[in-house]
Write a structure and sequence with these properties.
- By secondary structure, this protein is mainly beta.
- The protein has one domain: Thrombin, subunit H.
- Helices cover 13% and strands 44% of the residues.
- It has one helix at 8-23, and strands spanning 27-34, 48-60, 72-76, 87-90, 93-105, 108-118.
- A six-stranded antiparallel beta barrel has the order 1-2-3-6-5-4.
- Strand 5 and strand 6 (108-118) form a beta hairpin.
- The chain starts with 7 loop residues before the first helix and ends with a strand.
- 16% of the residues are buried.
Length: 122
């Protein structure tokens, strides 16, 4: 017997439905990753190059706590290789990825949620 409450068919349906919600948003962004090299001035310094374009469902939000400002949250497909400190360019705004969290439904990873901070002056 499987360790999940859902059958394989139900797991596949849940995954497909969440992915459909993300792709149906029609939103596309560019993933940027820092090239290897020294960082004399921190994580935001250096050269970032385009890794890929990807679909997402992005929600901008006002920061709740100015010291831990999160300007947006986005849901992305689970197979996207996205990392903390990567950047996302969406609608001419550049964001730093603060957190990446896998979201699951009864043991299957349906998508990832990334928290984003606007990089001012980029």
């Amino acid at each position: 017997m499987s360790g999940s409450i859902l059958s394989q068919y139900e797991q596949a349906q849940a995954l497909a439905q969440v992915q459909e919600l993300i792709t149906s948003s029609g939103q596309v962004a560019i993933l940027l990753r820092k090239q290897d090299g020294e960082s004399l001035y921190g994580i935001d310094e250096g050269v970032f190059t385009e890794v890929c374009t990807f679909q997402l469902e992005l929600n901008q939000m006002p920061p709740v706590d100015i010291t831990k400002s999160i300007d947006a949250r986005a849901s992305v497909l689970p197979e996207l290789d996205v990392r903390v400190t990567d950047r996302v360019r969406f609608s001419d705004i550049e964001y730093r990825i603060q957190t990446v969290a896998e979201e699951s439904l009864f043991g299957i990873i349906t998508h990832k949620v990334i928290e984003l901070v606007i990089l001012h002056g980029s």
